[in-house]
Amino acid sequence: MIGWEDVRAEVIRRVRDRDWPPGATIPAETALAAEFGCARATVNRALRDLAEAGLLERRRRAGTRVALNPVRRATLAVPLTRAEIEGRGQRYGYALISDGIEPPPLRVASALGLPASGALRHVVAMHFADGVALVHEDRWLNPAALEAEPSFERISANEWLVAHVPFTTGEIAFSAAAADAAQAAALGLSPGAPLFVAERTTWIGAVPITFVRLSHAPGYRLCTRL
Amino acid sequence: MIGWEDVRAEVIRRVRDRDWPPGATIPAETALAAEFGCARATVNRALRDLAEAGLLERRRRAGTRVALNPVRRATLAVPLTRAEIEGRGQRYGYALISDGIEPPPLRVASALGLPASGALRHVVAMHFADGVALVHEDRWLNPAALEAEPSFERISANEWLVAHVPFTTGEIAFSAAAADAAQAAALGLSPGAPLFVAERTTWIGAVPITFVRLSHAPGYRLCTRL
DNA sequence: ATCGCTAATATGTCTGCACATAATCGACCC
DNA sequence: GGGTCGATTATGTGCAGACATATTAGCGAT
């Protein structure tokens, strides 16, 4: 029996071996189904999968073409800091630095799409692995969007959020930045040390929930498979 | 007509509204198909999509459960540096710094799974946006895996590779690092400046092709949607 | 109690068919 | 030549049925 994974493998082979060069239109689903001796739905499943992976481009009526610039999509799993540390077999530690209501800086307000005149909850905390400071967390929360007003003394805001606010949408941006004085002190580094920064904006539907900036100590690596 | 996207939307709603709390087993496909008045295949499509997205976990016989830790998968498109710069409406520039055959450092050899005793092609180059140095590229190529021996005087190795070596697999790792003396000079920064580093290892099947380290000047952001 | 086998069951996938939808091609008119 | 509009066509999605496969619950023997 020909399965859709067999079809996918054969299509990949033909693209890689240049039987179907970049930019070329490949035979229609019906033709491939006849050739492989399977149903069109099976071919469709395989081609759809490859289109999602970025190898093919599909358009109704126009057919299926081999992607000219195979922009590879890497799927990176964004874990909880805690799960990430414990997954490496290290002891997780957490400490709250500050927690209060403040007007957000313009950059945060615009990222959340909220007026800078409002007041948001501002939480600063640290994450440790085996007692070593690893991540500096600077988070702004929209109190209007949260049912409760939880304490973040013991558990991190991220952990509370994933447990209480499922299925959010959002954006992540990664960059590098020099440690400022406060971060350097908290992380036990000298100011100017290069930090790996992940900034995450989270909505539930159209309601902004939180903006967080996670600054990782040198040595941190975010890995993914193509 | 109930479509699979309608089913998906309703499942998302039930998870978000806690009708189905995290960890709970949701009704079987047949039950949902009966409830929604559609075919099981339609429900299957919706649930499979959500499982791929990380919201659900599915196992044969055991059923479908709401993911306890909804590890969000972000798909990030990894573009050509050139396409990225031109996509912002800036003028792209490229300059080769050095090109030669050398034995690779241990770190590169092990990333590629090649013996450190062999010799690889080592290419160092720069990428510019509107004349401003933006990216420092440090690349090692496996000559045994390449059909030709192209010149990288005018076009970058990346560009030659995507045009001549389709459908590779690989890994990417992101991190932050301080600029060393050579990088600082090439990028017009002071040594120690925080660089956003993307390291990419590429195979074709099991044959290692290239290892590249792209160091981005401060200000660079890698963005993605959740 | 524990191990091992069997039967039950939910998901995974394929088939063959149908209709929907979008985009292109080409005929037609000016 | 150039623009409009319908016919064509490849993909997108739906349905009902069937079988495959993994996994678990439960039963029975030791």
Indicate the low-confidence ranges of chain A by residue numbers: none
Radius of gyration of chain A: 24 Å
Number of H/I helices of chain A: 7
Report the principal-axis shape of chain A: elongated
Q: Strand-residue fraction of chain A?
A: 35-45%
Q: Give the helix proportion of chain A (percent range).
A: 25-40%
> Largest interface here, residues on each chain?
A-B, 54 and 54 residues
Report on the biggest sheet of chain A. Answer: 6 strands, antiparallel
- Give the spatial strand order of the biggest sheet of chain A: 5-6-7-10-9-8
Could you give the distance between the termini of chain A?
29 Å
Reading the helices and strands of chain A in chain order gives HEHHEEEHEHEEHEHEEE
Mean pLDDT of chain A: 91
Structural class of chain A: alpha+beta
Q: How many β strands of chain A by DSSP? A: 11
Describe this structure in words.
The structure is a homodimer of 226-residue chains. The first copy, chain A, has 226 residues and is α+β, with helices and mostly antiparallel strands. Chain A is 28% helix and 37% strand. Chain A is built from seven helices and eleven strands. Chain A has helices at residues 4-16, 29-36, 40-53, 81-87, 106-112, 157-164, 181-187, and strands at 25-26, 56-59, 63-66, 72-78, 92-102, 120-129, 132-141, 169-178, 194-204, 207-216, 222-225. In chain A, the strands form two sheets. Chain A has a six-stranded antiparallel β-sheet with strand order 5-6-7-10-9-8. A three-stranded antiparallel β-sheet of chain A has the order 1-3-2. In chain A, a hairpin with a 2-residue loop joins strand 6 and strand 7 (132-141). Chain A is elongated and about 65 Å long. The mean pLDDT of chain A is 91. At the A-B interface, helix 1, strand 4, strand 8, strand 9 and strand 11 of A face helix 1, strand 4, strand 8, strand 9 and strand 11 of B. Strand 11 (222-225) of chain A pairs antiparallel with strand 8 (169-178) of chain B. Chain A binds a DNA duplex (30 and 30 nucleotides) through residues 1-4, 28-30, 38-42, 44-45, 47-48, 58-64.
